[in-house]
Design goal:
With 366 residues, the protein is mostly helical. The protein contains 15 helices and ten strands. Strands 2-3-10 form a three-stranded mixed β-sheet. It has a three-stranded antiparallel β-sheet with strand order 7-4-8. The longest helix has 34 residues, at 228-261.
């Protein structure tokens, strides 16, 4: 089970224009921008055209097959889902590590509302990305020392929002290229969706939109392109994901209700620990039923063991508004162009107004 099954993928547009941003911000952020710029340049420099890697006799056969699959997925994304047709995901880079970046998130002890960091161009976002795991964990520790609940988690892919297509676009990476067919399609659709629409200062809108596109898109891919085996594998894999998602969403609702209704800090903390203990017990029950190699669950086990307000807040970013987007897609008759136009229209509205619109869509569709 991949780490993306737990944490999703990331929009890390702050990485792409780091050198430009240096000219726009104060000295305190220079070190962060430099690691962002340097890390992204190393990723770009490691990338080779997919056709070149496939033609290379030294490339493992398994890699060549996955790259060939990725290009079929890439063509499907543009031709069938109307996602951008550009250089992104037509090159491949082996980073020789298990994640491309590590995201840091933080929230108060009595809230699921994530701390935000603000940057030029991308606006305020609810995470801070690092190309070095030690730096990410050091930042998480610093935030914890300030009294926040924090988490640092690995991310297999990020989007540059299309800003780097002139330089070859976002590459395929070893961090996700070996995903099962359905999961690989989901990730490519998700990251390309970030190039369609972007609302400044609204991570939840951006990530929920991309998650909706990946879910809707993978259904169509599986129905029209995938083999019986790929469809069967996806049913099993996605079944586990849905079980885990239901558990985490229920826990999120319990925590949110607790923070809104229990003013006494002592009683609130006691109930909070009971909710988290129930969450971990529920996960153990699910885990036992999955009957998987423990090595496949190592990162999920770690996430569950360390789960806190920041962890649950980060998950909400990726799925809170998805039902509204799915209802919007249905309301335009499954027309991708109209769906994207509606998403762009929403992105121009005030944040509260666009969120309310999507919640109303969800409720009307229920």
């Amino acid at each position: 089970m991949s780490k993306r099954w737990v944490v999703g993928s990331s929009l890390a547009g702050t990485m792409v224009l780091a050198t430009f941003a240096l000219a726009l911000t104060g000295c305190s952020n220079i070190g962060y921008y430099l690691q962002s710029a340097g890390g992204h340049l190393r990723v770009m420099n490691a990338a080779r055209p997919v056709r070149e890697v496939i033609a290379d006799d030294t490339s493992p056969e398994r890699l060549r097959k996955q790259l060939e699959l990725s290009q079929r997925i890439r063509e499907f994304a543009s031709h069938d889902l109307q996602l951008p047709d550009n250089p992104s995901y037509r090159r491949y880079a082996d980073l020789h590590r298990s994640a491309v970046i590590w995201n840091v998130v933080a929230a108060p002890p009595d809230s699921l509302k994530l701390k935000t960091w603000c940057f030029p161009i991308t606006g305020c976002i609810t995470y801070r990305g690092y190309f070095d795991e030690k730096e990410a964990r050091a930042e998480a520790a610093r935030l914890a020392a300030e009294g926040m609940e924090s988490a640092a988690y690995p991310v297999p892919a990020y989007s540059t929002l299309g800003w780097m297509n002139w330089a070859g676009g976002d590459p395929l990476l070893n961090t996700f290229i070996y995903y099962p067919e359905g999961e690989l399609a989901r990730l490519v659709f998700h990251e390309l969706a970030h190039q369609v629409v972007y609302a400044k200062d609204d991570s939840m809108f951006n990530e929920s939109f991309a998650t909706a596109v990946e879910r809707l898109g993978v259904r169509r891919w599986l129905d029209t392109q995938a083999s019986e085996k790929a469809r069967a594998d996806y049913v099993v894999y996605n079944g586990r994901r849905l079980q885990f998602r239901a558990l985490t969403q229920a826990t999120r609702r319990d925590l949110q209700s607790l923070y809104e209704t229990h003013p006494d800090p002592v009683a609130r903390e006691k109930r909070k620990q009971e909710i988290l203990a129930n969450f971990r017990a529920g996960y153990r029950q699910l885990r036992d039923g999955w009957n998987l190699d423990p090595n496949r669950l190592r990162l999920t086990d770690q996430w569950v063991a360390e789960a806190n307000n920041a962890s649950f807040g980060a998950q909400a970013t990726y799925d809170e508004l998805v039902p509204g987007f799915e209802a919007l897609f249905a309301s335009v008759g499954g027309d991708w162009t109209r769906f994207y136009d509606e998403a762009r229209r929403l992105a121009k509205l005030p944040k509260a107004e666009r969120h309310l619109f999507l919640k109303d869509k969800e409720n009307a569709h229920a």
